[in-house]
């Protein structure tokens, strides 16, 4: 007689089957083409991420009594500022040698190459400019936006998967994903499967989103605290996953550039929280 398996066992089996699918599936960057216009997974997933983030922000903003029209206006500013910042960071600090001789490629954002740290910087600049024009509270809005940032990142990382980029080192584990010969880095031609760092970061970012959402909705934090929790959380995520990634990036003091930046952001966020604890200022 067969007894039904416990719920958690079924979940584990399904997770393994899903990973087996990733282990054997060879992703392609283009979904389909309309005439000569290719529709890419990367662009579609970025659009989906922005849309879902906007939906969550709309719900959170409405609960705080904010004007919906302002939300749409701010979302546009943040999207444009974030994309420009992400691209400039990639061009200037990560792959400058390539883009210096391929200037037209700077504008091909649909091919990948959007650095998260640059996106954060660009988004902060756009938010600061917007609140100055509209005379709103910077930290109030920063905390609301920070809640959904890791959700957008969790979705956007799958664009890297379909582009066959930002993967980790070789692995023989069932969790490894195939990388086409054309996308393998020099020196890794003899390996077939690599760590899916996009998946590791996607899962951790989604968990961070749930933590920030719960914190924002239930604990009534001081101004800027949710933003700092995001910076701390993502800095830890990025610092750890960089030990697995093998894509080229500048190295300083034995650490990859994103790790150095993550340490600086982490230190800033901790310092901000320690200072903020000395006040009783509340945002909400």
Report on the structure:
- The chain has 284 residues and is mostly helical.
- The chain has one domain.
- The protein is built from 9 helices and 6 strands, in the order αββαααααββααββα.
- The protein has helices at residues 7-24, 41-63, 68-94, 96-99, 116-134, 138-163, 197-218, 225-241, 257-276; strands at residues 30-34, 37-40, 177-178, 193-194, 251-252, 255-256.
- A two-stranded antiparallel sheet has the order 1-2. Strands 3-4 form a two-stranded antiparallel sheet. Strands 5-6 form a two-stranded antiparallel ribbon.
- A hairpin with a 2-residue loop joins strand 5 and strand 6.
Name its key features.
single chain, 284 residues, mainly alpha, two-stranded antiparallel sheet, 9 helices, 6 strands, disordered N terminus
Q: What topology emerges from the helices and strands here?
A:
Elements: H1 7-24, E1 30-34, E2 37-40, H2 41-63, H3 68-94, H4 96-99, H5 116-134, H6 138-163, E3 177-178, E4 193-194, H7 197-218, H8 225-241, E5 251-252, E6 255-256, H9 257-276
Antiparallel strand pairs: 1-2, 3-4, 5-6
Summarize the structure.
The protein has 284 residues and is mainly alpha-helical. It has helices spanning 7-24, 41-63, 68-94, 96-99, 116-134, 138-163, 197-218, 225-241, 257-276, and strands spanning 30-34, 37-40, 177-178, 193-194, 251-252, 255-256. The protein has 9 helices and 6 strands.
Task: Give the CA-CA distance, first to last residue.
Answer: 58 Å
* Parts with pLDDT < 50 across at least 5 consecutive residues: 1-5
How big is the Rg? Answer: 20 Å
Q: What is the β-strand count?
A: 6
Order the strands across the largest sheet as they lie in space. 1-2
Count of helical regions: 9
Question: Sheet with the most strands?
Answer: 2 strands, antiparallel
SS strand fraction = 5-15%
Q: How many separate domains?
A: 1
Query: What share of the residues lie within helices?
Result: 55-70%
The H/E string reads HEEHHHHHEEHHEEH
Mean pLDDT: 88
Shape: globular
Derived structural class:
mainly alpha
């Amino acid at each position: 007689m067969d007894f039904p398996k416990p719920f958690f066992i079924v979940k584990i089996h399904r997770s393994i089957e899903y990973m087996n699918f990733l282990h054997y599936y060879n992703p392609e960057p283009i979904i389909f083409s309309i005439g000569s216009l290719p529709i890419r997974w990367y662009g579609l997933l970025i659009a989906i991420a922005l849309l879902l983030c906007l939906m969550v922000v709309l719900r959170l903003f409405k609960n705080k009594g904010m004007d919906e029209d302002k939300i749409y206006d701010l979302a546009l500013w943040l999207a444009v500022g974030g994309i420009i910042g992400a691209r400039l960071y990639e061009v200037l600090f990560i792959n400058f040698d390539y883009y210096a001789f391929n200037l037209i490629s700077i504008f091909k954002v649909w091919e990948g190459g959007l650095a998260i740290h640059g996106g954060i910087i660009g988004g902060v600049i756009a938010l600061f400019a917007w609140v100055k024009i509209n005379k709103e509270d910077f930290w109030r809005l920063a905390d609301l936006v920070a809640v959904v940032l890791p959700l957008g990142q969790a979705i956007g990382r799958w664009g890297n998967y379909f582009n066959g980029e930002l993967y980790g080192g070789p692995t023989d584990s069932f969790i490894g994903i195939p990388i086409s010969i054309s996308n393998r880095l020099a020196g890794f031609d003899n390996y077939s499967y690599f760590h899916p760092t996009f998946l590791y970061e996607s899962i951790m970012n989604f968990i961070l989103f749930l933590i920030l959402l719960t914190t924002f909705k239930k604990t009534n934090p001081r101004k800027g605290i949710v933003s700092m929790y995001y910076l701390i959380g993502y800095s830890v995520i990025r610092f750890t996953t960089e030990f697995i990634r093998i894509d080229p990036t500048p190295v300083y003091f034995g650490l990859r550039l994103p790790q150095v930046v993550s340490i600086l952001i982490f230190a800033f966020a901790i310092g901000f929280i320690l200072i903020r604890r000395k006040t009783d200022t509340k945002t909400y």
